Amino acid sequence: MEIIVAENAGFCxxxxxxxxxxxxxxxxxxxxxxxxxxxxxxxxxxxRLESLGVHHAESLDEIPGGAVVLSAHGVDPAVEAEARAxxxxxxxxTCPFVRRAHRHIRTxxxxxYAVVILGDPGHREVGxxxxxxxxxxxxxxxxxxxxxLPVQKRYGLVVQTTQRSETLRxxxxxxxxxxxxxxxxxxxxxxxxxxxDSARELAERVDVMIVVGGRNSANTARLxxxxxxxxxxxxxxxxxxxxxPQWLASATRVGVTAGASTPEWIIGQVVERLRTxxxxxxxx
Length: 284
Description:
By secondary structure, the chain is of the alpha/beta class. It is built from 10 helices and 12 strands. Helix 8 packs parallel to helix 9. The radius of gyration is 21 Å and the shape is flat.
């Protein structure tokens, strides 16, 4: 059985940067270090950080002092201001691509555009984006949502960094019919596009596709959707132990891709488990 890992899989630049910042903070033992919410959407990597002394807190009230790390997804600026007011050392691990989206939203809001965000409601990145519009942004997930918005003179559209380009085009087309002027900022991360394209290409030439990443990871879920849309049987898992031998029945080529928050060591474990299952199948 041949195992092929997608050309673009696993950690993106923003995640690597966030983990580097946390690693440097953890080496300073003079004060405690907490992340505000999960740093990234991968439970296994969060557990590894905990073993290094980097603790996880869901709110500022849970952080008695020391340093607080803002996640790669970004936070409401009011939360950052409160952290500083409490005397915490703020380490901003917001992905630069997310920060770019923040700037575009502020500009649109300041210039009087009705702001629309294409993204997953409830996702932390989308919450941080909406906060830059003073909480007045419209959050949509599809062209149908956009078509339901009221007619406005001017709309400005910004997109969650892990969305699909096709969905952005559909939403922009629907919004164009609801206003006299539309400004669109394509803030989808370039690494996201490359990861999605390589996953789709690989899924089209293998018998089974394995997508590795946290179940709470939006970009990993998007990879699963893209791979499944090719018609290739697709399975999403977090760790190698979740692999089921029956998934590989009669498969001669298996593809593997992984979300932006999936560390190389987990991908390696999945590939090794696939090799073991493939050997066992060949010997049966």
